[in-house]
Structure formats: structure tokens, C-alpha cells
Amino acid sequence: MLKTEVLDNNGTYVDDLFARHGADVFDTQLTKDNIPTLWISRNKLIEILASLKKEFPMLLDLFAVDERLREHKPKAAKDFTVVYHLLNFSRCEEIRIKVSVSEADISVPSVISVWPNANWYEREAWDMFGVEFTGHPNLCRILLPPTWQGHALRKDHPARATEMDPFSLDEEKQAQEMEALTFRPEDWGMQEKTEETEYMFLNLGPNHPSVHGVFRIALQLDGEVVVDAVPDIGYHHRGAEKMAERQTWHSYMPYTDRIDYLGGVMNNMAYVMAVESLGDIKVPDRAKVIRIMLAELFRISSHLVFYGTFAQDVGQMSPVFYMFADRERLFGIIEAITGGRMHPAWFRIGGVAQDLPIGWEKLVRDFIDSMPARMDHYQKMAMDNSILKERTVDIGTYSTEEAIDWGITGPNLRATGMDWDLRRDRPYGGYDQFDFEVPVGNKGDCYDRAAVRVEEIRQSLRIIRQCLDNMPEGPYKSDHRLTTPPPKERTLQDIETLIHHFLNVSWGPVMPAGETSFLIEATKGINNYHLISDGGTTSYRTRIRTPSFPALQQIPLISRGLMIPDLIAIIASIDFVMADVDR
Amino acid sequence: MSELGTMVFGLVLILAAVGGAALVTWFERRLLGIWQDRYGPNRLGPFGVLQVAADMIKLLTKHDWVPPFSDKMVFIFAPTAIVVAMLLGFTVVPFGPDLYVIDLNIGLLFFLSMTSLAVYSVLLAGLASNNKYALLGGLRSAAQMVSYEVFMGLSLMGVVMLSGSFSLLDIVEAQRDQWFCIPQFLGLYVFLIAGVAESHRLPFDLPEAEHELTAGFHTEYGGMKFAMFMLGEYLGLILISCMIVTLFFGGWLGPWLPPLLWFCIKVFIVICFFILLRAAIPRPRYDQLMSLGWKYMLPLALFNLVVTAVIALAMQGQG
Question: Where are the domains of chain A?
């Protein structure tokens, strides 16, 4: 049997790959999402990835898995696995390359030479799993503090504070921690002075009005000109991936809300779609349309925050108040439908939590009818303002190639002129039924990034209007046995549903063993939950790929040679949320 | 006015100016609130006007902290300089035909020199704080104020030519037939922009630029010392408004109403305009501000000067 036959579809380039490198180099694995998943040896890694780059230009994600306790292990797996998740744009295809290493010899060659954005991902994998990447220029902790002991996502690392010694901070330890935080320019390849000038190092953040959360950039300045910058993240790290290993598939939902905390149910979307693909659950049409409507409402909400803070960060005081007022009205609708506001945790495995309330149409219609006029007003107030244009046009430019190299997705990628939106090009969850346009920019500067988002608000309004006019009748939850919680009415009618209700609510649903991932076009770019089920009530490994993470990594590249105010405009324009970066 | 009268008036003026500056902070917040679809401070007293008192109490009772790494003497001196300079500036403003502390024959120059002195306050605060953000703020303000000073002075020379005097009383009297805002509209335009830059308010608030430099030159300041900067800034706002009214909008001149009331109404309108500017316009970048100043404002001021001179000479020839 040819190895490609194991893989359901997408045989062609895998055949090519086999022909180029020899089929015996690869081991295949079947996954629930039918993405070709190939295991290779680390000696071949660079060679194969470099040849794959022509076909799959983006390194979407790079992460590790601790396989040591996994019962349903793929046959090629040893103690740890490093996963390279690649993406092709023209055909919207993905491929996964896996490298397995044993605990005793835990090193993998670094792929920074192939993809520059591997830098932070590799640091994260080292930080969390202790996987060593040979050839990495500065393999140090990225999310956890530099003094952290152990590697947090390993299965033998405690998951809750009660499993560890009580925390205390005596003076000696405090001094050590302070010492560890000292910024040494040499570590980052920066000179303190040259013959002509002595540089100033400015610590922007973690508390600074314009870094949108807790984010720090160490700047090397010549006057006010940024010579180099080192972004430092991890201040918002809450161990979301580790928590997933303790929560049931169902009870993890509220944690996802707080990943991109401006995206609300958009996070639920990525997560439930992945869980549903694990459990082969088909969602009824009404639930799909409700989900899309809610997700688009949250896209508008997130973009409104962006719009307001963007104008604010270039020094315009008023717009943010108008946009927050609109967002407030929007939250009124969300509250009427879900009961929550920013984090409703309202999607469920197999559908949504409740049916839409009576009178929802009027609320939504009033909102989408009023918005276009408001958007015109904002256009005049903010986007057409000549000072705002002077501050943002041609500032922080990058090309499509650079964006792809650095793993930039979503509006930030479209601003470079790349006409690619997952909702249109590989529709998921019912987006194929909707009519909308994908706005693109052309220069990839701060202004374009904002303009793309402004237009996306209008397109989202269009999608919501279609949801409103064509809301299908029918159930809002699937009658699949893994739907959690199952439809309550029926539990009183037959014993079968009652048992499922009891199990799914008390233990949580048991997902069949397997591996899957699901890409969605979230508010800020591609969001992906890679889930590994070992046939239990909790996930064995949850990997959250977020769009903000690579966007921050790219900041030094686009801000060198500009001034501090430009850097602020760049930070404002890339629209990140620190919880989305650190997880 | 008798000597005693002048002293009493001077005292009243200081109180009025400081009280006015405090009121303007409240008024600005309310006005911004109305324009931005929100309320602003509206809880304490009628329309929230006692918010001013609450703010005072808060600022007065705050820990009076001098950072150990700062240059202490200068650090403490800096905020007083701006308040003193601005208050001195008020002495030459004629609030009515007989309402002024002193009528200097170089009144206009005195005003210009006092606003220039205020620069030192910002500059010294930036240097003395020994903080990188404050330093950057101080650098910016030095560059900004020095360059805007140049054409701020130049923009007023047209007015001086038309009225033939540096005395503010004479300048107001010279506007009996026609306010200078009409023949001197270019001068007014340049002076308005320079005035905003002088009082470093948004859009020209680069020395503090909250989104870039956290609080710029006064990053390290808190409590009363911070309040002094704020006071100085709002005094500056009122002073500039007073000067605009005096130089371009006929000062106290106006029919029916008493002169002082006319003066106050006009100043009030100019202040509202400044607040509207703050609400509406984003902040240009530091180098853009500089090039605006030297490339557009300075030539404009010079052009205004030459044209005014030619016309003034021609009129003299006729007369």
C-alpha cells in the first residue's frame, strides 16, 4: 500500500514530497482534520522544510507535545514531539510535519534560517517543554520569568499551586529576581555606543499608556530615533494551555473567551469547531447562523476598540468615546442574547447555549441600521484627517512576502494587498452561504491596516444583515450524543438522553482519541486550536495558535529607523491583545 | 488708579486668574464630555462645579514626593517658575479702560518675555527629573517652544505697526473702528497656532504626549507640584486667550454691555475654541511640527509683516 493512501485527500504534493525525498523518510499519521501529518527524522528537518517552503510559504505554528503519558500514541512518537504546521494560501491547504525526540536527547535543529518567525515559537517550545533548538541565537525563556524552575507544559510539572511548595518572596530572592530582569543590550546583539554616539536604552512598558496591556519593548534610541527594539512578552501569561489539560472539554469554554479578550465568542468558535471535528458532530443550520452572527458582532466590537484606540494613540482624543459608545450598544445586544458581555462563553459543543431571545431581531436591526451613518461620521472624523494620515501613511510598512515570512495573518496581511480571507477562501461553519467582500490594502502601512479594519466592520454588518434576514428555523443544538449539555427537554422522555445528560454534565463529554486542529479567521487573524484527545474527558494537549503572537515578533523589523511616535502608531495599528499573545 | 487700588486689583487678579484656571479645568472636562457623548464630572455641587474643590483637596493631600535620584532644588523650583511667569503675564492685560495692573509702554514685549520664561519651567523639570521620558519631553519642549517663540513674536508685529504702539491699552484703543482680526487675519492665524504650542495643549502637547512619553516632562511629578504645572498650563491658556482678545478682537470694546463683561465673553469664546481644538485634532509628530513651524508659519508671519508694512506706509503717505 502506498503511504499516501493512508491520507484521505491532498495526495498530490505529498506524492511529490515522497518522490523528492524518498517515501521511507516519512511516517504518516491519520488525523481527524485530514491534514497530511508526516513524521520525519530531525536530520532531514531543515532540508524538507526548506523544500516545502515553496509550496507552503507560511509557518503557521510551531509547538511541542509531551507524549510520555499519552496512551493512544502515534507509532512514530517518542517522548516529545515538535510540530511544524504549515499553510499554503492559494489552495488553502495545510501540512503538519512532526519530529519526535527522546527525553535523553532532546534537541532539534532550529529552523530560523527557513522561517524567521520560528524564533519566538522555538523559544516558547524551549520554555514550556525544554526542547533544545540547536543553532537558535538566543534560546531563553519567553513567557515565563527567567528564574522559573522546570518546563511548565511538561506532564510532570504541577498544574496548580497546591501541588507546589508555598510561594514566598524573601529579600534575597527578590534581589535575585530583580537581577534576572536587568536588561543587558549585549544579550540582544545591541551595542551600547559607537564611536559617534552613545545610545539611550528606553524601557517602554510593561506599564505604558500605549502598549495595550502589559507588554514591554526595550528600545535602543539615538535621540528619538529607534535604532533597534526588543519586544518582551509573557507578562500576561496565565497558562491557558496547561489549564486545558485539567478542564473538561466543556468547562474549558470560558477560558477560551479570555484568550483574545476583545473577541469574545470568536474564541469559542475556534475551540468548538475543533472539538466538534474530534467528535464528528454536525451542527444544525440555526446554530451555525447564530454562531456566525455572534462572531461577526464580536468582530465589529473588537474592530471598534481598535479604531478608537488607533485614533487615540496618534493623539486624537475624541473618536474613542464614540466607538466605545457604539460598542456599549453592541454589548447591550450581546447581553440580551447571551447574558454576558465581553466573555459570554456562549457556544457549546454541538451548538449554542440557548435559542435567541424573543425580540432579538429588533435589537440587531436597530444596531446595523444605525451603524453605516456612524461609520461615515468616523471616517470624516478620523480616517480622513490629514494629521492622522501624515502620522500613519508610509509608516511601519512591510511587504506581503515579509508578512508571510513572519506569520502575519488577518487584516495585517490583507493590508499588504494579499487578497486572502479564510471565511471566503475556505469557508467554515456556514460562511459559504454569505455574501461579503474582502477588503485589502496595498501599501501595508499603518493607515492601510486601519482602513482594512474599518471596511471589515461594514462587511461584518452586511453578514449580520444576511443572518437577520435568513435566520433558519430549527434546533439550536445538535442531537449528537456528545452535545454538551444535551437538549434538556428530551432527558425527561428517554433514558438514553438522560444518561448522556448526566455523564456530559457531571464528568464532561468523552471525546474519541485523535488529533485535530481548526483554523478560523478571528478578529485579528488566524486562530487555531490544535487539540489532542487521548480518549478522555479532558484534552491531552491543547495548543492555541493566536494571530497576535507573530505580529509582536515583527515589531522590531518595521520600526527600525523610525521615531518613538511612529512606533506608537505601529503598535496601535497592528491590533494585538496581550492575552492573545501570552495565553 | 491709586496705588492701593492697584494693589487690591492685583490681588483680586491673582485670585481670579488662579480661580479661573481651576474653573477652566472643570469647564473643559464638561465641555469635552458634551462633545464626546458622555457627562464629564457632574456629581459635586451644581453641574459638578465643586469637582474643582475635590481635585484641590486630593492634590493637596497627596504625598509630596521628591524622587531621590532627581536634582532636588531644580525639581522643586521648576513648577513654580511657570506659575509665576504666567501670573506676571497677566499684569499687562487691560480688562477694561481702567482695569489693569500696569500699562507698560512695552506691554506686548513684556507678555512675550513672560511666556518665554515659562519654557524654563518645562525644560528644568525635564532635566531635573533624571528620567528618560522626562528628558525626551524636555528636549521636545525646548525645540518646540524656541521655534514657536520666533514667529509668535513676528506674528504680532503687524498689530504693532497698525496701532503704532507696544502698549496694550493703545492697541485696544486703535481697534475702535475695526478689530485687528480683519486686517491681521494672517497674524491671528499664526498667533493662534503658536499660542496652542506655547501652552502645549493638544494637538501640540508633544512635551507630555501621554501616548508616547507617558507624561513627558512631568512624569515624576505628583501632588501639588504636579498641580502647579497644570495650573501654569491653564493660566497660560487663559493668558493666551486674553491676549488674542486684546490684540485681535478689540479687547473690552463692545456696545451696551460693560467693558469687563465684553472682555470676559470674548475670552470665554476663545477658550471654548481651544477646547474644541483639543477635542478634534490628532497630534502631529515632533519633526512634522518643526517643519510646520519653520516651513509654513515663519514665512507666513514674515509675509504678513511685509504686506502690513507696505500698506501702513502707503496709508501714511496718503494721510
Answer: 3-134, 240-582
Per the CB < 8 Å rule, is A564 touching B213? Answer: yes
CATH of domain A3-134: 3.30.460.80
Strand bridging mode A216-222 / A37-40: unpaired
Question: What mean pLDDT value characterizes chain B?
Answer: 83
Q: Where are the alpha helices (DSSP H) in B203-258?
A: 210-213, 223-248
Is A310's pLDDT higher than 70?
yes
Q: How far is A579 from chain B (nearest CA, A)?
A: 21
Question: Does A336 touch chain B if contact means CB atoms closer than 8 Å?
Answer: no
How far is the C-alpha of B131 from the C-alpha of B137, rounded, in Å? Answer: 10
Q: How far apart are CA A248 and CA A229, in angstroms?
A: 41
Place of cell 496652542: B196
Output the furthest CA–CA distance in chain A (Å, rounded).
84
Does the distance separating the beta carbons of A209 and B214 come in below 8 Å? yes
What confidence tens digit (pLDDT) does each residue in A82-126 have?
Answer: 999 998 888 888 888 899 898 888 889 999 888 999 999 999 999
The answer to whether the pTM exceeds 0.90 is no
Inspect the interface and report whether the beta carbons of B209 and A315 lie closer than 8 Å. yes
Nearest CB partner across the interface for A385, out of B132, B282, B286: B282
* Alpha carbon of B181: minimum distance to chain A alpha carbons (Å): 26
Q: In terms of Cα–Cα distance, which of B208, B166, B164, B158 is closest to B185?
A: B158
Task: Indicate whether A2 pLDDT > 50.
Answer: no
* B34 at A interface, C-beta within 8 A: no
Work out the average pLDDT over A223-235.
85
The pLDDT of residue B209 is: 63
| Residues B122/B145, Cβ–Cβ less than 8 Å | yes
**How far does the CA of residue B210 sit from the closest CA of chain A (Å)?**
7
- Angstroms from A387 CA to nearest CA on chain B: 6
Which H/E stretch holds residue A543? Answer: strand A539-545
pLDDT of residue B211: 66
Q: Name the residue with higher pLDDT: A560 or A85.
A: A85
Q: Three-state SS string across A18-78, please?
A: HHHHCHHHCEEECCCCCCCEEEECHHHHHHHHHHHCCCCCEEEEEEEEECCCCCCCCCCCC
Dihedral sign, Cα of residue A291, residue A292, residue A297, residue A299: positive
Grade residue A24 by pLDDT with cuts at 50, 70 and 90.
confident
Q: Does B36 touch chain A (CB under 8 A)?
A: yes
Q: Cβ–Cβ of A315/B211 closer than 8 Å?
A: yes
3-state DSSP call for residue B166?
coil
Q: How far apart are CA B159 and CA B96, in angstroms?
A: 19
| Parts of chain B with a pLDDT under 50 | none
Q: What dihedral do alpha carbons A530, A534, A540, A542 form, nearest 10°? A: 10
Is the torsion defined by CA of B141, B142, B143, B144 positive or negative? positive
Query: How many CB atoms neighbour CB B97 within 10 A?
Result: 14
Reported as a single tens digit per residue, the pLDDT across A44-82 is 888 888 888 888 889 999 999 998 888 888 888 888 999
* pLDDT of A6 strictly over 50: no
Average pLDDT over residues A342-362: 88
**Domain spanning A240-582: CATH superfamily:** Cytochrome-c3 Hydrogenase, chain B (1.10.645.10)
Per CATH, A3-134 and A240-582 having the same topology is answered: no
What is the DSSP secondary structure assignment for residue A381, as one 8-state letter?
I
ipTM of the complex: 0.81
Report chain A residues whose CB lies below 8 A from the CB of B274.
none
Average pLDDT over residues A8-27: 72
CB A424 within 8 A of CB A89: no
**B 187-226 residues inside an 8 A Cβ radius of A:** 202-203, 205, 209-214
